[in-house]
Amino acid sequence: MVKIIMYPLKRFAWFKRLNAKVTYELLAKRIPAAEWQFMNYGFIPDDNERLPELDNEKTVQQYPMQMYHYLASRVTITGKQVLEVGSGRGGGASHIARFFKPAFYTGLDLAQNAVDLANSLHATNNLKFIQGSAEEIPFADNSIDVVINVESCHAYGSVSKFLSEVKRVLKPGGHLLMVDFRGDNKMNVLRSYLFDTGMKMIEEKDISSNVIRSIEAEDDIKQARIKTLVPPRWQKLFCKFAGVVGSPFHLTLKNGTRHYYRFVMQK
Asked: Where's the Methyltransferase type domain (predicted)?
């Protein structure tokens, strides 16, 4: 019954915004576990890509962390002003701030509970988290070198407004680094929104196979974490949300009806 009611509402921008805020406010408040710092499906690099030397970080959600690492590796981050839109629990921001050493890294998230949790988990001199909307980014024109967006914009009320805001805050020559998933038709819509910004497409790569490998490699650990952290009555639903092996997300990536892309754009 809930699915029948919610499905038609998903086409309304107001509902997408409300659903995202409520979902991530609750997750941060109800499951504030320090060992759960990332909320993406993970990435395993191609055989010709060098694995990063990450010391003790290898033990903490390695594959989701690698999603951030290989995305940030597409451009120069060191010494730059970086903004992540949709920073979630802050694990990706923390890794990039420490490993790539930007001048400053700001994580922006719609959910205040997620912002509070991220600030409590990640204490780094060049990093802070603030609350705000992807569709009204609270930064001045031409003030940011790199905008990062990881598995987030599919939940926005208006992706075109988000991209307009990204272009506004980026400095000339600045970059948008983005990964996200869509079905065929919706991916074409996203691609058209990106081209409509007038920014230059530096890279457009289907990384679905890299994400599938990550989901399958991490499945045992992920399912064990869900059993430990999530109340039993919510575990089945959360397994779908988390994209475990056999979930709709995993199966649609495997059969090619859903795709996961990495984009690099330059203003």
From this structure: 83-177
